[in-house]
Design a protein that fits this description.
It is found in: Cell membrane; Membrane. Belongs to the binding-protein-dependent transport system permease family. Keywords: Membrane, Transmembrane, Transmembrane helix, Transport. It holds the Pfam family BPD_transp_1. The protein has 301 residues and is mostly helical. The chain has two domains: 56 residues, no CATH class; 236 residues, MetI-like fold (Orthogonal Bundle). It has 18 helices and no strands. It is globular. It starts with a helix and ends in a 7-residue tail after the last helix.
């Protein structure tokens, strides 16, 4: 205990710097975890957690036996799988391209342009989507009509819904996702690239044999963390894009929790659904981390 306290005193300014982040996780992440207890209760706001009766696993049995469970699981998994396959690699590719730009001014301009959509809210992103793809006055459909094609119901056709969500995520956050990869590339020893040049390696060979191995650990860590969010889609985006025509492919765990927990007041049941998501995410992180270690990577822990 004395050694721990001595280390805190020695590095007091570092701990002070980390204090806001620690307080954030303590107040908004760890203390609210006590709330998961209501998933095992028939919770009533008037009786509180101490007065509400315990029902054990009743809400979980109800959830797993619900016909909507498989639909919610399919939609959530499909949307996240598309994001993992198409969205996750793009920041890496974009970072590699930006890293090869030698004109500093041009590089900064491009970075600013690709970062900008990240700071737009989902309300604005979805509004832009409606302006572009609506059947009536959408710019895309107006162009199709001008070239002699028929209008396409992008927003009310369930066959396009998952693709549109993925495209929105790519446009909004692909540029922002390059920050960590560019930082990792900046830490690569320049002598490695010089040695590769002497050996006759071109740009692509240097990327494949020097740059990518240099950022491999960062890619693995971010991939593990991304896999841990396979049950989280992002409520705002799906909720704003959702309509009656696409509800069959749009209803996910997050919208289901909102509908039953907030609108219908089924607090215990919706908490059980949220706990299920968290447990699955934890299992996926642990499994992905073990798999990474088997292949010789450091993993998250």
């Amino acid at each position: 205990m004395k050694q721990i306290w001595a280390g805190i005193v020695r590095d007091k300014f570092l701990y002070l710097l980390a204090l806001p982040g620690l307080l954030y996780f303590l107040i908004f992440r760890y203390i609210p975890m006590w709330g998961i207890l209501i998933s095992f209760q028939d919770y009533s706001p008037f009786q509180g957690m101490l007065g509400s009766p315990w029902v054990g696993l009743e809400h979980f049995r109800r959830f797993f036996s619900n016909p909507d469970f498989l639909l919610l699981f399919r939609n959530t998994l499909a949307i996240n799988t598309l994001s993992l396959v198409f969205f996750f690699p793009l920041p890496i590719v974009l970072a590699l391209m930006l890293n090869e730009v030698r004109n500093a001014a041009y590089k900064k301009i491009v970075q600013s342009i690709v970062y900008l959509p990240h700071f737009l809210s989902w309300v604005i992103i979805v509004g832009i989507t409606f302006l572009l793809f609506s059947t009536g006055d959408g710019a895309i459909n107006q162009m199709l009509v001008a070239f002699g094609f028929e209008k396409v119901d992008f927003l009310t056709n369930k066959n396009y819904f998952w693709a549109m969500l993925t495209a929105q995520s790519i446009w909004k956050d692909a540029g922002w996702g390059t920050i960590l990869f560019l930082a990792a590339m900046a830490s690569i020893d320049p002598q490695l690239h010089e040695a590769a040049k002497i050996d006759g390696a071109g740009r692509f060979r240097q990327i494949w044999h020097v740059t990518l191995p240099g950022i491999r650990s960062v890619i693995i860590i971010l991939l593990i963390l991304r896999i841990g969010h396979m049950m989280d889609v992002g409520f705002e985006q799906v909720f704003l894009m959702m309509n009656g025509a696409v509800s069959e492919v749009a209803d996910v765990f997050d919208t289901y929790v909102y509908r039953l927990g907030i609108k219908q007041g089924q607090f215990s049941y919706s908490t059980a659904v949220g706990l299920f998501k968290s447990v699955v995410g934890l299992i996926l992180v642990i499994g992905a981390n073990k798999l990474a270690k088997k292949f010789g990577e450091d993993g998250v822990y």
